[in-house]
Amino acid sequence: MAQETAVTNVRFEHWLKKAVEWGQVTTAESQQDVCLHLPELQAFLLQIYEVLQNMNTTAVIQSFPLIGQLLGRLCWNPFVVAHDKSQKILLQSLCCLYSKEPQNAVEFKANDWIRGLLCHLISLSDMEDIGVHPSVSTLTTTPVDYLSSLVTNMVSSLVGELQGGVHESNMPLRVSSEHLNRLSVFCVPLVSIPEVVPLIEVILNCHESGYEECLHVAFLESVNNAILQRRISLSEKAVTSLWLRHLPSLEKATLHLIEKLLTCETMQMKEVMKNSFLPQASVHHPAIFLVIDNIFRKMLLDTDGNVKALTAVQVFTRHFIQIYQQNTQQHQIPLKTYFPHVHQSLVMVLAKQPSDIPPKAWPHHLKYIADMLKTMTEEGNLWSNGGLLENWFFLAHFGDWLHIAAYQLLTSENKISDALLWLLAFYHHPNTGFQHRMQEMAELRCVVGHLKELLNQTPSKADLQAALDSSKAIIQHFCLKNVINQLFVSFLIFSSRGHKLAHQFFACMDLTGDAKHISALLTNAEYWMNLPGFQNQEAQRTVEVLQELFQGR
């Protein structure tokens, strides 16, 4: 007690006065004064630390009512904490003051205050060099492990509080919006620490009252960045809550997914999509889907329907539809809710996956799709909800049916279908007028007829060259490059000798200058062929050979 009296009555007020003086002026003179008094200050702080080890938080506050002001001012003084020893003693003292199981309002309030100071000091410290408690060495615990345990204890206490835990008085702990805001600010510099993840999860999942978002925007942004950089991993529920709370986070996550889909290998797309949580969240929250879909729309318009961009949209939509169909909730959200600008009949017919329909029924199904779209876009039918752009954008979500349309055109023994020709032409070139479309379809019929003949024989390089030269003349007059490229890619994929013709085709394609577009079409086709019910080893081998040729170009 003699030591306690000395600290309180002789030196405490002196150092509090000095801390106030140092905090008011940050000049060279104040820095020199700190340095001059630093050894004496450190000795005094050690005295405080020794006293704190033998007292609980309530007793400390009763004995030293101004200890919070002193330690708080010193922790935020850059000249004091710049010295490792001072920083270390302050951290040790705060650890002693923290109540793992707070018993009263004083200790709860003290814990809130200590968390802020610890957060500040830990962010400045090299934790490997800090000895935070004398018992650490006895327990063979490293400083890093000790600080990890400290953070875990704080997080556990706060999680229990937010989840409606009770203290000794058996009174429920009420969490206000203001308290959630303070906790979110406290977490900003700690979001990448694994031990803090449970607290982040609970904060994001809290349902506070009121219409305004109570979580600090810096917290929401920091969490989203940590997720995208894979520094933390949160549950699907927490991530979804983040997106519902903060639109920029959803937009950034969507752009991040698009970037990954455009650059990853075909076989990685499924895993990338699954790990993003975006299709899952979209199924349960149409508002999320509509935001994502608007970003896709802008991307397709900005890139003029680039094949890589189309592939990203189609991969997302495919996973979205699969999850939607697997959702067996009693009150399932109508699919039309996700596509409000498209007629219900078109939504239902295009959203059907090809694997769910017998192959014999594919031609009829495709004709129904084509006839419906043609009626809506060319004849301006009144029951069409959307215009040409809306209907094309909706069709662009379901690229699987376009691959099957090309397959039917090239392999069917029946005469060439006008409906399927129109569907392919509209998909690749939606803005063509009625008269021009009729001329395009006549030229496309010639290309398809030529390729059907080659498909039933063993074409030479000269045959391929002649087909490409003929197509090149059509492209120059009718701007049908995209659809003709798809027809040639489909020809190679569905040919029994496609992998043997690949090298000849590649040599011929040197004359067309469409290597990037062909490569993107191959990626799109490769993903489609890996779906259930479409696996074909010969076709996959052809795609692999062509990809190697174009990528090594």
How would you sum up this structure in a few lines?
This protein is an all-alpha fold. It has helices at 2-24, 28-52, 57-63, 67-75, 78-81, 84-97, 105-124, 135-138, 143-162, 177-187, 197-205, 217-228, 236-245, 247-263, 269-276, 278-284, 286-302, 307-326, 344-351, 362-378, 388-396, 400-411, 418-428, 434-455, 461-478, 481-494, 498-509, 515-529, 537-551.
Strand content: under 5%
- Please give the number of β-strands: 0
- Rounded mean pLDDT is 80
Principal-axis shape equals elongated
**What characterizes the major β-sheet?**
none
Spans where pLDDT lies below 50 across 5 or more residues: 1-5, 126-144, 165-174
> How far do the termini sit from each other?
83 Å
Radius of gyration computed on alpha carbons: 34 Å
**SS field, number of helical segments:** 29
Q: Which tags fit this structure?
A:
553 residues; 29 helices; 71% helix; mainly alpha
Q: What can you tell me about this protein's structure?
A:
The structure is a single chain. The chain is mainly alpha-helical and 553 residues long. Helix content is 71%, strand content 0%. The protein contains 29 helices and no strands. The radius of gyration is 34 Å and the shape is elongated. The N terminus is likely disordered.
